[in-house]
Amino acid sequence: MDHTSNKLKKEDEKIEIGETKPGINLQGYCTNVDCLAAKAKLPVWVNLGFGDISFNSDKTSYRCPDCGHFTVTSIIKAMIFNSEHSICASDNSIPVKDNHYQCFYVIKQGLAYELKAKKIRQHATNLEDLIDRSESAMMSNEILNLVAELQKYLITVVKPPKVKDKVRLLEKIQCDYSGDFNQVFDIGRFTILCDNPTKLQTAVAVMKKAEQFNLIVSEDKDFFERQSKTHHRFHNIKLYVPKHDVYVEMQATLKNFTTLEGYTIIENPKLSHLFYEHIRAWKPNNSEEEDLKQAGDETLTKINDIICEWIDDKGIQKIANRYKSHLDIGILKPPQLSKKTEIEINASVSLKMAQFVYEQLCKFTPEKMKGKAIYVILYEYYKKYLIGDKNPASCADFASLLQESRKQEIEEDIAILHALETYIPLQANNYPHLDGDDNKHDTYDCYQRVFQFLQEEKEEEDGEKKNEQIQQFHKKK
């Protein structure tokens, strides 16, 4: 009897070479005989980024990511990722326009294709129009139904009480996007807070099925497993709301990692965001400010490494062990702020940064491990870059510098150093010196005399207390 038909079948592993990135990605086969991918007959992905391209499936060659030669032909598939795009073929088929975050198209041999892909952008006519569309989309049934679905899984969804402050919004648009308001997506951001990575995975999976709520997932950026520029840890989804022709952002992270007020367990949660705000708006005027800004960027990533646990508990505790509070060491005010008016400080980003960090160090008194580690990182930035390594950043530093200076002076003074090396403790008497050797054995050193004196004094005090107790006892009788 043949049992092979009843045997369980294992699924073959699908192996592909190359990496897909935002924009246009084409898959084909390399024809280079010396290429390992070609010998193994493995399909390879070639990323062409954003732009307009035209090609014939079997007459165009692209650079192989494995061997580096322009020998990838026989294109069999196209994948457009995180883009607004269009594609059409020479066979009179209906052209496609789409903005789904990931679209695959089978490429037929012998046909010519035209592809266009551009970055996701808002479609507003001005900032007011963008704000109106965003507010309407946030209150739409489509978004509210999706939020309700997420909440069924006991996932916390936080809707901002209002859109971003317009003054700050304009500043961000100018600094980050050179005035292009259609590059802004977080006017109406929802924050998805999850208890653990599995819940976060579930939340992202639910959001990716947004079509059932008449929404389109147009961009998917995973900065939970790989680090973002600032090391903030989250999974970002952009949802297109067709009814209002606008994109709304959904940002998912863990409850342990959020700094959102009312939901965070992080001490002084505003610190990291305010620090980021100072750096973001900073346009350095010279090389010194450039170094200071770069050091600020690195400090922010270190703070986020602690908040978002890119460093494990052991590593965070090691940093936290170096914590000393302002009350213990006495933070000194930056000398560059001396005799500066509020107007002068506000006119200089470096002075504003110095004032901000100084005030944070004076006011912030963390009690938990993460808070203490963050304080240490901030103090090290303050000491090294805002004050300078050679200058005291605290009273403790000042005392240490005085001790070092005194030590150095002694080491440089040969006479004093020689005297210390040949120093012999002096002896003293408690009676006038008399010539002769009769009383020489009655001498003793000063230290011994002090100890004896203190002991005698203690015995006298104990005796007096005992006499007082006896007198009080007789009086009671």
Describe this structure in words.
The protein contains 15 helices and 16 strands. By secondary structure, the protein is an alpha+beta fold. The chain has four domains: 15-118, no CATH class; 127-254, 2-Layer Sandwich (Beta Polymerase, domain 2), CATH 3.30.460; 270-391, no CATH class; 424-477. The strands form four sheets. Strands 1, 2, 4, 5 and 8 form a five-stranded antiparallel sheet that branches. A five-stranded mixed sheet has the order 10-11-14-13-12. Strands 3-9-6-7 form a four-stranded antiparallel sheet, with no helix packed on it. β4 (62-63) and β5 (70-81) form a beta hairpin. 26% of the residues are buried. Residues 458-477 are annotated as: Disordered.
Please provide a brief summary of the model:
InterPro entries: NT_sf (IPR043519). The chain has helices at about 35-40, 125-140, 140-150, 165-175, 195-205, 270-280, 285-305, 315-320, 325-330, 340-345, 350-365, 370-390, 395-410, 415-420, 445-475, and strands at about 25-30, 45-50, 50-55, 60-65, 70-80, 85-90, 95-100, 100-105, 110-120, 155-160, 190-195, 215-225, 235-240, 245-255, 425-430, 445.
Give the CATH superfamily of the largest domain.
Beta Polymerase, domain 2
Number of strands: 16
Structural class, from helix and strand content?
alpha+beta
The domain tally reads: 4
What value does the Rg take, in angstroms? 36 Å
Distance between the termini: 116 Å
The number of distinct helices, counting runs of at least 4 residues, comes to 15
Looking at CATH, which topology of the largest domain would you report?
Answer: Beta Polymerase, domain 2
Q: Which CATH architecture of the largest domain would you pick?
A: 2-Layer Sandwich
Q: Note the overall shape.
A: elongated
Strand content: 15-25%
Under CATH at level 1, the class of the largest domain stands as Alpha Beta
Main beta sheet, described? Answer: 5 strands, antiparallel
**Whole-number mean pLDDT:** 86
| Helical content band | 40-55%
Unreliable stretches covering 5 or more consecutive residues: none
Region (Disordered): 458-477
InterPro entries: NT_sf (IPR043519)
